[in-house]
Each structure stands twice: as structure tokens, then as C-alpha cells.
Specification:
mainly beta, 42% strand, Rieske Iron-sulfur Protein, binds FE2/S2 (inorganic) cluster, 7% helix, 5-stranded mixed beta sheet
């Protein structure tokens, strides 16, 4: 897991965007965990260079979605198999009843920036 230092965070916070990873850190089809301040965030690299970001903690109980499985634009929780749409955060099946928070993410050069 990458951690973003408070310095990095504050340097870019004025613009509302924080560098959270390099593009090369998140292979296509993979999910990558980062921490931004106290927040756990999951970064997803979907086919075609489409990067998405959601809360990394499942809304059912405590499990990190970055330990789960990314398939067809959905992340499956490793603990009880709830699935979420990574573009909208929508909980797609039980046992999760609440949606995930989603974050804007963009590519700038070789960096992935998250809007906070
Ligand atoms: S903790 Fe994710 S489905 Fe239960």
C-alpha cells in the first residue's frame, strides 16, 4: 500500500487533487490500495486505461476491497462476496446494502491524481 504524506497532500490540496500513485503502479485489470490522510482508497485500472477510485473498505463489515477480485467493472469483497460497481459505487448484491463512496481520479503524465 502506498501512503501519501501530509506534505504531498497539502502541496496539492489547493487544487483539490492529490497524487496517490504512479500509473505504472496499477496494472490493467488490477486494484491497488492507497491511503490519503486517514482514508483508505482503492484504485482500479479498467480495460482501456480507465482509472476509477472508491473507498477501499467494504460497506458491510471490515474488509479491504483491494484484497478482492476485479471483474467486468465490479469489485467483489473477499470476505462475504458482496459486489460493487467501481464506476458508481453501487452495491450490487447482498450482504452489502450501502454504496461505496467514489472519487474522481485522473491521469496526469505518469501520475494518478485523486480529487479530495
Ligand atoms: S465485509 Fe464485504 S461483504 Fe461482508
Amino acid at each position: 500500500m502506498l501512503a501519501v504524506s501530509r506534505n504531498q497532500e497539502s502541496n496539492m490540496a489547493d487544487a483539490g487533487w492529490v497524487r496517490v500513485a504512479g500509473v505504472a503502479d496499477v496494472a490493467e485489470g488490477q486494484v491497488h490500495a492507497v491511503r490519503v490522510g486517514d482514508r483508505e482508497v482503492a484504485l482500479y485500472h479498467l480495460p482501456g486505461g480507465d482509472f476509477r477510485a472508491t473507498d477501499n473498505v467494504c460497506t458491510h463489515e471490515y474488509a479491504l476491497l483491494s484484497d478482492g477480485w476485479l471483474e467486468d467493472g465490479c469489485i467483489e469483497c473477499p470476505l462475504h462476496a458482496a459486489r460493487f460497481d467501481v464506476k458508481t459505487g453501487k452495491a450490487l448484491c447482498a450482504p452489502a446494502e450501502s454504496n461505496l463512496q467514489v472519487f474522481e481520479v485522473k491521469v496526469e503524465g505518469g501520475d494518478l491524481l485523486l480529487k479530495v
